[in-house]
Amino acid sequence: MTKAKFIKMIIALLIAVAVYFLPYEAFGVVINPVEKRIISIFAMAALFWILEPIPIWSTSVLVIVVMLLSVSTSSILPFQTDASGETFKNLIKYKEIMATFADPTIMLFLGGFFLAAAATKYRLDMNLARVFLKPFGKQPKYLMLGIMIITAIFSMFMSNTATTAMMLAILAPVIALFSDDDVGAKAAFALSIPLAANIGGMGTPIGTPPNAIALKAMNELGLNVSFGKWMAFGVPYVIILIIIAWFLLTRIFTIKAQSMELKVGDKFMKTPKAITVYVTFAVTVILWVLGDTIHGLDSNTIAMIPMAVFTVTGIITKKDLKSMEWDVLWLVAGGFALGVGLQKTGLAADLINSIPFASWPAFGLMIGVGIICLFMANFMSHTSTASLMVPLIAAVGVAVGGNLDPMGGVTALLVSVAFASSLGMSLPISTPPNALAYATGHIDTKGMAKVGVTIGVLGMVLTYAMMYLLAQCHFFVTADAAKAAIKPKAAVVETVPAAPSVNAPTTVTVPATAVAK
């Protein structure tokens, strides 16, 4: 370790320790020592991932180990009890922390690795790249736009991670055409895939889980947003943001090549193993596109099909396994572990409930909620962020009532939550597609952060502008209509902070199914 990296590590650790001793009560946030430890670990992880005193995958391993030692049911004995000797009730089961190494999404990653390795081995990636990219000409920047469009379309109807895994396999021979000194082109092309996958998923209710969570809450509030109605604003939003992202990539990264011709993959191989790869690849993608409502298989389970087929047939060998990016799986596991810590200790809920959303003005509420969601989504699962925020914000939106109408009412508020949850993509651990792109070795964390933060901010600005314009066209049901719609079936009372003092709540009636489970 160099002296500079050692200094960075010491600074990061000192800040993490200082964060633990902050007077949270003075800010109106009441949390216990276990939650303080999670905040401290969170600060350490964020600084390590940004400053990189050690490889980012090893930071993830460190996060998991520190969590096991300090906030789990198997932690060091002094960390398990309070000053009176009582055991903390919000310690995390150690098996839940360890299970992040084998999270279902990890299996999806592995399935993607298997598909990519087999596709490369039998030249399927080259042939698909030639077929898909031929209509977009020879200029690199337009080829990149074509890749982003194809990725976004796939991502509207299948898992963002599965789409990224498939498209990165196709992209490999394209990147190989650039010279070694054209690092900007390689970075731009590698990063274009996760950007397009994350953005494309926002176009339909099934494109990404935050959309489905928000849509469910809307329909329970009587807002009746259909699949088609979501696409009516979601698809134009995706088109605009894809163009913005493409333009940004062409400006931030210098592409030296003026022209490129993909003279690879003239013929598909016709050996039995090659045909097995083609059929398995096609079946996997078709199953991903159809979705579990048709066949009952989720995307993580589907990803294990090529793993079984390729190992049984000898298409993927022991040597191939050794060359896979196992460090990326550990990297992602660390991000999952932080998400578990934020949720299972109750820290995320306590921090959010301490914010007096109901006392904020309508426009400030929408912006504030978006910023909070965007920040959270960069460090924890997009689905977890939406699951945590949507029920609370739905209740707050109904409580605020007609004040939200100029911005589109409760519907616009929940859409902004869903979109903000999907726009968190500034780090490799922010979203699985980012981690897959980072695994290519062509993009570093600084470049990813620069693009991710810019797209996140611009995406939220575009969201607010679109919600305002749609509100002027009376596209959404008003907040008052939503409040009236839920009165007949009110069943549960949800408490929402109404003033800076968290001890003075107002009571808001919301549907039973809208309360966080």
Short key terms for the protein model shown above:
globular, mainly alpha, single chain, 23 helices, two-stranded antiparallel ribbon, 517 residues, disordered C terminus
Topology:
Layout (H helix, E strand, L loop, with lengths): L2 H18 L12 H19 L4 H15 L23 H5 L5 H18 L2 H10 L6 H16 L4 H16 L7 H18 L8 H12 L6 H26 L19 H19 L1 H4 L3 H14 L5 H5 L3 H19 L2 H7 L8 H16 L4 H19 L8 H14 L9 H7 L6 H28 L6 H8 L3 E8 L7 E7 L6
Antiparallel strand pairs: 1-2
Low-confidence stretches: 486-517
Number of helices: 23
State Rg.
24 Å
Portion in strands: under 5%
Taken in chain order, the helices and strands follow as HHHHHHHHHHHHHHHHHHHHHHHEE
Task: Outline the biggest β-sheet.
Answer: 2 strands, antiparallel
Number of strands: 2
Side-by-side strand order of the widest sheet: 1-2
Mean pLDDT: 81
Fraction of residues in helix: 55-70%
Distance between the termini: 46 Å
Shape: globular
Explain what you see.
With 517 residues, this protein is mostly helical. Among the domains are: 1-101 and 326-354, no CATH class; 104-209 and 227-325, no CATH class. The protein has 23 helices and two strands. Strands 1-2 form a two-stranded antiparallel ribbon. Strand 1 (490-497) and strand 2 (505-511) form a beta hairpin. Helix 11 (227-252) packs across helix 22, helix 12 packs antiparallel against helix 14 and helix 19 crosses helix 23. The longest helix has 28 residues, at 445-472. The model is unreliable at 486-517 (pLDDT under 50).
